[in-house]
Amino acid sequence: MSVRTLRLPRPRHARRAFGAAAVTAVAALAAATLLPTGQAGAADTTLRSLAESKGIYFGTAMTQSDLNNSALTAIAGSQFGMLTPGNEMKWDTTEPARGSFNFAPADRLVSFAQANSMRLRGHTLVWHSQLPSWVSGLPTTQVKAAMENHITNEVAHYKGKLYSWDVVNEPFNEDGSFRTDAFYNAMGSGFVADALRTARAADTNAKLYLNDYNIEGRNPKSDAMYNLVKSLKSQGVPLDGVGFQAHFVLGQVPSTFKANLQRFVALGVNVAVTELDDRIQLPATTASLNQQASDYATVVDTCLAVTGCAGITQWGVGDADSWIPGTFPGYGAATMYDANYRPKPAYTATATALGGGSTSPSPTPAGSCKVTGTVSAWNSGLTEDITITNTGSTTINGWSLAFTLPTGQTVTSSWNASLAPATGQVAAKNLSYNGALAPGASSSFGFQATHTGNTSLPSLFSLNGAPCTTA
Ligand code: G3I
After folding, report:
1. What is the pLDDT of residues 84-94, one digit of tens each?
2. CA distances from 119 to 109, 164, 206, 313, 437 (A)
């Protein structure tokens, strides 16, 4: 969308505004985002900046298709400082046929991360799942060479661009025995050391991790990982960290989580929470959302309490892009953002645990912005003027206002902001001259759109991921 800074002539009829001249759209918006005002919000700042001020990172996983969702990207690019490609760096995408590499999907996510000054966790080089059949069908004598070639090519492609690699993912069964996958069957447990050494040879700077699930507490599987790490370190194998996926079930963060992380750190590795979510039996209730907030706070508190915990990554940005409902029927609501990308109590609790000035978890976290708007419509067109006010107590440097355009409306031009996409979930981003919003300050932008009969105002506004009140 090209940006025009010129004001467009606006017809006088059919003018509507938020507030006194209430219209259906306003009522709907208010119902959807009824927010307490005057709450000092964790939303005054971002998870990313709060985490970084505590010396850890806060990240998210994203897939290629997420790049088309402006509500999602607005949050990802502002709230999270680390990005893990959800699927695009896995073997089935990067080397679908032997020696034939495809890095284009992951490169798009790398570009997004770079454009938003996010670091990247590479995920994953050696894994039994999402493994093309040509690898699992190889004679065992050829697997080592194929694995080394895959690692060498992929790590070399991303050399200098990634913070870390999950070199080996999920090597263990629940009882602590090795999975009998193509790699173990061909090389025994030595495939882990070989994979790590191969990765280090291709990139001396990226931190090399082993990653698994159900190893957060003390149990046979985490004991197996512990013994493996101990053995690798004693042999001088390059290993920098262990990733604890942390796909939790509501209320079941293990009581041994902190002690378990600490025993790994004592071996001389970093630890990280790499795929955090906390699944709830649907429908979610106020009680379950508050329990989830408590679980998220426990995870943050634990990482902050463990010297050597590098950071936390949530698996997905919001409930709408989470893998949980597809894999665990009847469960969902597993992330910090709801299906419309509004922050949930878990967001507030996380921000608070990271040191953000906030109130206790609330089902409707306060926004740090207020939005007012007017619409002027004629037969098939309309113009809308939107004013954002920073109601928080800190300056906002760079804003992205996400909102939902009514069905049938298509943006054709805009001023004082760049808008994309033209329909549906739209993000309006500041231009070079109006990105700073001091506490109490306002900024206005507008756009022209075509419509097919619905001339309502947009709804569900959120600024840099935090929902806004409407006057
Ligand atoms: O690409 C195909 C598409 O062509 C097809 O039409 C569609 C139909 O089902 O499937 C698509 O593939 C899906 C793929 O994600 C890409 O979207 C697979 O079915 C689906 O199984 C796969 O799920 C991924 C899962 O790993 C596979 O195990 C999830 O998105 C991804 O979030 C998940 O991530 C894993 C971590 O890598 C490791 N830890 C556990 C975590 C959750 O399972």
Report:
1. 999 999 999 99
2. 11, 9, 11, 12, 26
Q: Per-domain residue ranges for the chain?
A: 16-26+364-470, 41-353
> 164 CA to middle of ligand 1, Å?
21
* Residue 47, φ and ψ in degrees, nearest 5: -55, -40
CA of 447 to the centre of ligand 1 (A): 38
Class in CATH terms, 41-353: alpha beta
Say which residues have a Cβ less than 8 Å from residue 359's Cβ, sequence separation at least 6. Answer: 39, 40, 41, 348, 352, 366
Three-state DSSP class for 53? helix
Give the Cα separation of 373 and 26 in Å (integer): 10
Q: Which structure tokens are listed for 93?
A: 């995408």
Which class in CATH covers the domain with range 16-26+364-470? mainly beta
Could you tell me the distance, in angstroms and rounded to a whole number, from the CA of residue 184 to the centre of ligand 1?
23
The 3-state DSSP class for residue 415 equals strand
Q: What number does the ligand 1 atom closest to the CA of 315 have?
A: 32
Sign of CA dihedral 78, 58, 335, 294: negative
Q: What is the pLDDT of residues 368-407, one digit of tens each?
A: 789 999 999 999 999 999 999 988 887 787 888 888 899 9
Residues with CB under 6 A from ligand 1: 86-87, 129-130, 169, 213, 245, 275, 323
Q: Which atom of ligand 1 is nearest to the CA of 90?
A: 37
